[in-house]
Every structure is written in C-alpha cells, then in structure tokens.
Amino acid sequence: MRSVALSLLVLLGAAQASILLPYHMPDELIQLMAFREQPQNAAISVCNDIQFNYCQTHFNQFFGMDDSISWRNGSYIFNTVQNYLMMNVTELVKVCNTRTQFYQCLGSSYYPCMNLYTLLNKPQPDFSNTFDYVRTFRGLEWMCVGGFSEVVAQWSCLATFPTTKAYQNCIGNFNQTVSAANFCPAVAQTGVCLNDAYNAACGPAGAGYFGCENFRITFDNSCWGLRCMVDSQ
Q1: Is residue 226 in a domain?
Q2: Is the pLDDT of residue 47 over 70?
Q3: Residues 59-93: tens digit of each pLDDT
Q4: Of 24, 78, 83, 178, which sits 20 to 30 A from 65 (CA to CA)?
Q5: Is residue 13 part of a domain?
C-alpha cells in the first residue's frame, strides 16, 4: 500500500515538489512574529552588517547567485535553495554543507542575523522577503541537523508530499484560522495535522515528526515551548 501511495506522490509532485514548505504569511502576522522575537538582551544580540554581507556572499557563490543578493531578496533565495534541494540527495548534502559553512562564518552572530525583529528593524525592509529569508535558514537548520537522517532516507516522499491534498488541507486550515489572537495554538494544531498527514503518506513515525518540525521550526522564536512529538511505532 505504501509503495502505491509513494508512486502517486511522485506523479503528483514531480513538477512542484518542495522540501522547504510552501505557504504564505500575511504582513500583519509576520510583524507579530517579529515582535515576539524581540531579543531580551540587546547587548548580545547584534547582527554586524559587514560580517553578515561577507558570509552571505560566500553562501551565494555555491548557488551561483550574485554577490548583491541578500536577506532583502529572501524569496529569491528561498526558491533558489529549494531548487537545489530538489535535484537529488547528493545536492541536498552539498546544500547542508554550505549552510554549515554559513553558520560557522557568522558564529555568534548567526541567530541575531536570523531574527525577524532584527532584520525588520533595518531600513526599508520588505516583510515577505524577510520572512522567506529567515524561514529558509530555519528550515535548513532543521533538515540539515535534527532531520538529516530522515530527509536522506525518505527524500522522494518527503519532498513530493507538499503537492498533495493532505498537505494543502493542513495549510489551508492554518491560513483560514490563524490570527493574532490564536497564533501559537494555530501553529501547534497545524504541526499535529502535518504529523498525521506525513505519517499516513510516508511512514514510519519519523516522517510525521519531520513534517511537523519542518513547519514548527520557523516559529521557534515566536511560539516558545511548542514541540513536535515522535509517535510510537
């Protein structure tokens, strides 16, 4: 049964497969996230622009992106990284290695520079581009570290699943119900929905945890304490 389901997923998702989850966030909720991500200690939460630009330039080189591409072009970076991740597992590993080098280059500045509050307080930010930039690197952080074994083992199924009706139902419900008043509960509910949907499509239990965490990680700094659970076999 699972082989039949996997074959169907490949057919449905061949043209638009995606490991970094595709969805849209309205500006008002991105602004809410940024407010909730405000660093508690500004003295140790500095993103140095010179270092940030230097490390970004080196990251760009692997993907053939122009040196001028930065967090202000977050949607372009998201799509470019997505395309490389979807080539094959070998390229995914190379992307993860490039992400590790970027992380090491920034050092203690990595998390301040990957913070929505920090970036949106720079001059003339674009909300969608900034959100796409941050979620690109948070998504890579999950799949290249905690989720690495699962994504390598189940690359085909995990990558094509976001093209299915089950994924669209989870994200569609999130889009319809999420608001400032219930933001984190909506994130939690969507994580549970994705956990169940990924398990049903890809199995075993690790697939559900991967799908839930792949969504939750973007909201890690704005919804404190939310965790995905690994289902028992």
Answers
A1: no
A2: yes
A3: 999 999 999 999 999 999 999 999 999 999 999 99
A4: 24
A5: yes
SS3 of residue 144 by DSSP: helix
Instruction: Measure the CA–CA gap between 210 and 143, rounded to whole angstroms.
Output: 8
Taking CA 109 as the corner, what is the angle to CA 104 and CA 114, rounded to the nearest 5 degrees?
Answer: 95
Alpha carbon distance 10, 217 (integer Å): 26
Q: Considering the domain boundaries, does residue 232 fall inside one?
A: no
pLDDT of residue 127: 97
Global confidence as pTM: 0.90
Q: How confident is the model at residue 230 (pLDDT cuts 50, 70, 90)?
A: confident
Percent helix, strand and coil across the chain, each to the nearest 5 = 70, 0, 30
Q: Domain tally for the chain?
A: 1
At 15, the pLDDT band (50, 70, 90 cuts) reads: very low
Look at the block and give the residue holding tokens 């400032």: 180
Q: Which amino acid is at 40?
A: Q
